[in-house]
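yo

u said u wanted the structure for the complex thing, so here. seqs first:
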Amino acid sequence: MVSQAIGHRASRYVRLALLAAVIVGLGLVLVDALANAAALTRRPCANAADPLGVPTSALFVFGALGAFCLGGLLSHWPASLGQAGGEVTPERRGVAVAVHVSLAVFFTLGVVLVAYETWAEWDPATRWPITSFVRCADRTHTSTSLATAVAVSFLLGKWLWHPWRPADADTGR
Amino acid sequence: MPTRAAEVLATGTRLLALVVFGILLLLAVFDFWWELRGRPSLGHRFRRWATRYPLYSLALLALLGALLSHFFWQELPAR
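structre next:
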């Protein structure tokens, strides 16, 4: 029992520390992209650029997959110890509605971005697909882009990892 | 690099960073706050949705995997 309590506390601190690190990192990238976009255009990077070469591109893909799994495992850690994630305070109705609206906006935005990507890929000679911006950032700011891809994948893994058992969906983490 | 392409690159990157990272950052801050207060996290809310609609969540994950590969994977050179 004592070791389970220590495990729950440890997993909570690890999640909080990683979430804080991701928030600070994404915040820095956001500010830098908004305030210092000229840095992106100093080195040449045309539309429809190829992705990076094999060792680095594999680092991106497997780094992102690893971060996704880490996020998923951390979000399930208390459940994997064989106990529900502690007492969960009931949600107020207003907060629940706000969360649902935010998630609906998030998914709608995802649909809009994917639709734009499809439209731009139809004729990439005249339009810039999102892929070109991403690959350009990879080429000009490789380490920052890798860290960002890992951070975003960690968040998605923490949020979207499917529960191993239906009961795990109610553990609250 | 032509000036027009540089402008498109700077504007597009700014917009993309603002929209995508801004929303992710907002959701991450919510998640951190709920985690700190011991309230149901964002993952908890998503997991309840995923349990209720497994095919939708599978489609979402397939889309994310396809985007990851599309953005970063180096295609094999044509022979």
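Confidence is low (pLDDT under 50) at residues 80-87 of chain A. Chain A is about 70% helix and 0% strand.
cya
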